[in-house]
Amino acid sequence: MAEAETAMQDNDGPLLTAEGLGKNYGRLAACRDVSFVLYPGEVLAIVGESGSGKSTLLQLLSAQLAASAGRVSYRMRDGVMRDLAALGEAERRFLFRTDWGFVHQDPALGLRMAVSAGANVGERLMAVGWNHYGRIRDTASSWLERVEIDTARIDDAPRTYSGGMRQRLQIARNLVTEPRLVFMDEPTGGLDLSVQARLLDLMRNLVSELGLAAIVVTHDLAVARLLSHRVMVMKGGRVIETGLTDQVLDDPHEPYTQLLVSSILPA
Amino acid sequence: MNAPTYNFAYLDEQTKRMIRRAILKAIAIPGYQVPFASREMPMPYGWGTGGVQVTAAILGPQDVLKVIDQGSDDTTNAISIRKFFAKTAGVATTTSTEDATVIQTRHRIPEAPLHGGQVLVYQVPIPEPLRFLEPRETETRRMHALGEYGLMHVKLYEDIARFGHIATSYAYPVKVNARYVMDPSPTPKFDNPKMDDCPALQLFGAGREKRIYAIPPHTRVTSLDFEDHPFTRYRFDAPCALCGADDSFLDEIVTDDKGGRMFVCSDTDYCEGRQAHGHRGTESAAPHKETAHGRG
Fold it and tell me: Which of A90, A85, A65 is nearest to A74 (CA)?
């Protein structure tokens, strides 16, 4: 861990780069010619309406889908840039449960609903060889505290949790191995406004505290504004506008972005 | 005495060759579940169709067969399988662990130490140790292939979180040859240490799930645990009521409806052997006098 940090600090190179990324489903181009560079500690929001290719792009970036064109490279903890498509399955899965996190919109996809919260958080630790019950449990309960879940509920299964708690538990489960990059797919979808606000606040704190890089897919511009440093606007599978968050949201250039920004309901 | 209408040991020779190939592969990759084309057997699934097929494939005319069910030689399942092979293969049968060359077992490993040249055949209901944690077969096979066994510890973690100790008392997961995590079939965890460095060959057959796996002789078998919650054997804290043994796995037998109970060896051959050598427990009948339980 310490080595990885020094490697990160020594090296101001990008954490993840996408070059000419595309995905076709038959004649349908779900995602076309997407290129960008993500640096350590940077939060990138991908916004756009549903069907614009956001989720496809997220799956391409996290190596869950094979790209039809282009490539994604990631700087491993040893500092070497690797093409994700060239990684073996074992390496890819290892990356996925150690150096990456993936927060699903539906917590049931990211959690084991029938297994206690403590074991949900501890699973990643056990997967990388932790073999001491007491230490696993201590780490799990300290993470529950960090995501503001009452530690008295450590032995309850997440199916007894509310929607907001499940989402926070999912975040704890992902962050316990101290990943450097977290993918989030509509992390606040389906939650009511006050719960959303609390979750966003928590995520913003954690991201800045841990120096995480994150790629957040959302259709909610408020989420993008609160969390992200940079925004990419997608339409019809293409990136139509990109820039600093406040720049894009306060001074949108593309007509479609202007439409998106103006369609926010006044609070 | 072969029944005239059946091939030796019931299965046809091609089927036996197919099963032997699976067994050889299983021995070559200890703990790995080898798929095989399990046949319909003249008994229902769950009665040991996998074990019977493995036994049929390895049995030779010179073999001496012993069959146990929960340690006992005289339950319906054990007797019917023993008679099945006596009829279809004409092999000698025995209840003695020492004399047997092939032992088919349901849920126990005999108390008497096994020796080289013996084969222990287990009947396995569910071969996949990860099944109740991960329902997708595609995923569990990938996890085995990549050696991703964090999930197995999640089960043990849950036990400790809920009961304060690892409460899994049977089908306790083991790691074979430092590679594959394996379900030892529903044997009590008391028997787990007997699998380690065992001089006999251990074969596991799951008929319904169509899998065969194996532990070759003298293979390292370790029970999974946590550093601060190490693996422990479990045994009722009592001597056998019939033979007085204090080192054997015990069955609890309810003797009346007033809370009366007795503990006796689950391995009947071991218990009878000890009694024949003059060992007596608190409930054993005096040589020429029958006494009722609980009344001295």
Answer: A85
Sequence-distant (≥ 6) Cβ neighbours of residue A227 within 8 angstroms: A43, A45, A200, A203, A204, A207, A214, A216
**A108 at the B interface (CB within 8 A)?**
no
pTM, entire model: 0.86
Best CA proximity match to A141, nearest among A131, A132, A154, A130:
A154
Give the angle A231-A234-A237 at the CA atoms, nearest 5°: 145
Q: Do A116 and B148 touch (CB under 8 A)?
A: no
Tell me the C-alpha distance between B188 and B190, whole Å: 5
Nearest C-alpha in A relative to B148: A127
Q: Return the biggest CA–CA distance within chain B.
A: 63
B240 is a catalytic site residue: yes
Q: Do A89 and B229 touch (CB under 8 A)?
A: no
Asked if B148 lies within 8 A of A132 by C-beta distance, the reply is: no
Residue A257 is given by DSSP the state H
| Residue tagged 């956001």 (tokens) | A54
The tokens describing A75, both together, are 């700087």
ipTM comes to: 0.84
CB neighbour burial string for A85-117, b if at least 16 within 10 angstroms, e if fewer: eebeeeebbbbbbbbbbbbbbebeebbbeebbb
What pairs with residue B68 in β-bridges?
B105
Residue B168 Cα distances to B109, B156, B160, B163, B223, angstroms:
18, 8, 10, 10, 11
CA distance B143 to B128: 11
For the record, the structure tokens of B163 come out as 């009961």
Q: Is B31 a catalytic residue?
A: yes
> Distance of alpha carbon B190 from its chain centroid, rounded?
12
- B157 has a chain A CB within 8 A of its CB: yes
Closest-CA residue of chain B to A113: B133
Residues in chain B: 296
Q: Which of B8, B100, B81, B12 is nearest to B42 (CA)?
A: B81
Domains recognised in chain A with CATH numbers: 2-115+182-201+215-262 (3.40.50.300)
Which is the catalytic residue, given B31, B48, B50, B205?
A: B31
DSSP lists the bridge partners of residue B289 as B286
Are the beta carbons of A116 and B161 separated by less than 8 Å?
yes
Give, in order, the Cα–Cα distances in Å from B200 to each of A199, B81, B150, B181: 58, 21, 30, 20
Q: Tens digit of pLDDT per residue, chain B (296 long)?
A: 554 678 999 999 999 999 999 999 999 999 999 999 999 999 999 899 999 999 999 999 999 999 999 999 999 999 999 999 999 999 999 999 999 999 999 999 999 999 999 999 999 999 999 998 888 999 999 999 999 999 999 999 999 999 999 999 999 999 999 999 999 999 999 999 999 999 999 999 999 999 999 999 999 999 999 999 999 998 999 999 999 999 999 999 999 999 999 999 999 999 999 999 999 988 876 554 444 555 44
Residues in chain A: 267
Residue B22 CA to residue B35 CA, distance in Å, equals: 7
